[in-house]
Amino acid sequence: MTFLLRMITAAVLFFSLAAAAPAAVVQADSVRVLPISGDIDGSQAAFIQRGLRQAAEEGDTAVVITINTLGGRVDSALKIRDMLMASDVPTIAYVTSRAWSAGALIALSCRHIIMAPGSSIGAAEPIPNTEKNIAALKAEFSATAAQNGHNPGVAEAMVDKSQGYPDYAEPGKILALSDGQAKELNVSDGSADTLSEALALYSLGDASLTYVDKDWRDDVVGILQNPYVRTIFVALIIAALLAEIKMAGIGAGIATAFVFGGLLLLSGNESLADGLKIVAAFLVSLLCIGLELASPGVGIFGLAGVVLLFGSLFFMLGATYEAVYILAGGTVLAIILFYIVGKHLPKSRLFEKLTLKNRSTKEKGYTAQADYSKYLYERGKTITILRPSGTIRIGKERVDAVANGTFIGRDVIVRVVKVEGSRVVVEPEPERHPKP
């Protein structure tokens, strides 16, 4: 009985303490707002990547992409599209004014679309509007819309004007929709005058908003992603390694290549795992080139270094057709740069082995085939019989000669009538008779 009383007392005490404890705190909804405005470029892609990463780290309930753009670079829009589609945080596009061209693709990449009254979306025909570009971009629009529950047929008509869309765009007219039309065609979830009203449609009207703006870091990444800047970086990497080969062992060339390679890597959008693989390949390429400099003549290290270098640069640049063009342009530019600057750099033993440094000059005693043209029309005297060849003396020099005829006897005065390379042709000097 005493034991039972103790158990009851303990239970009462436990539940009393539990009731007195504070209730569990329910985390409030938080929404991160990322505005996209102006031209779509690399800096916008870097900005969205940073914002989505922050939203995932902070555990935000949703991410809102406010859109007001006429379009921009398709490659940058595709990068943003891939990031939005892969986001674990729900995404909402709020079109404040225009989501044209690349902006339309970004909007369709979000799970939900809300449009402000008077806004529009579409008009995404690529420039240049070649058959290949239209087909590729139309497929991207269709797949993106279908995966997020938007109307894929409408998305295709935004890109390909040849198909049109019944009652909204005749064949030959590119499709662009107002906010009301987008709702009718199941492109958007509706219209809202403000962002708060838009969020209220998803029960997020009371959520705390965190506004993130694009800053200098995104601008720097955008500059680094410019294809012309990347071509210059590739040229500097290759030229630096060529300079290292010429100077051998100083290390400045490899250090320069490492710095610009790091800038190329930082400007990319690779995952951590892929980034580490590329870094490893790039570092090993520099190591192999360094080993080749330390042991010139082996060859295997140099070959492996070149293969790994171009392979790692190809993946740093995105492993696309554009990457091939950048590598080709950078290589040509590097050769030109090295030709201009390289002549002022000191030479190494390895470079001397790779280039011809010894010259056969007259100053060093080297001569080409003897020049016999100086004997033309000169007079001489035969030393031996010319049958038809033999030896003559012109001044103090012995010269091999050929008779211009059958033969010429010894001690005969001759004149050089023809010189063909090393072949000296002579004939007897006519005898002179005194005048009567």
What this model shows, in words?
Strands 1, 2, 3, 4, 5, 6 and 7 form a 7-stranded mixed sheet that branches. This protein has a 5-stranded mixed beta barrel with strand order 8-9-10-12-11. The protein is 47% helix and 16% strand. Residues 1-26 and 349-356 have low confidence and may be disordered. It folds into 3 domains: 30-215, Alpha-Beta Complex (2-enoyl-CoA Hydratase, Chain A, domain 1), CATH 3.90.226; 226-353; 373-428, OB fold (Dihydrolipoamide Acetyltransferase, E2P) (Beta Barrel), CATH 2.40.50. It has helices at 2-20, 42-58, 74-86, 102-108, 131-147, 152-159, 179-184, 195-200, 216-224, 227-247, 252-266, 272-294, 300-316, 321-341, 349-354; strands spanning 30-37, 62-69, 91-100, 112-115, 120-122, 176-178, 208-211, 379-382, 389-394, 397-403, 413-420, 423-428. The protein is built from 15 helices and 12 strands. By secondary structure, the chain is α/β, with parallel strands linked by helices.
Short description:
By secondary structure, the chain is of the alpha/beta class. It folds into 3 domains: 30-215, 2-enoyl-CoA Hydratase, Chain A, domain 1; 226-353; 373-428, Beta Barrel (OB fold (Dihydrolipoamide Acetyltransferase, E2P)), CATH 2.40.50.140. Helix content is 47%, strand content 16%.
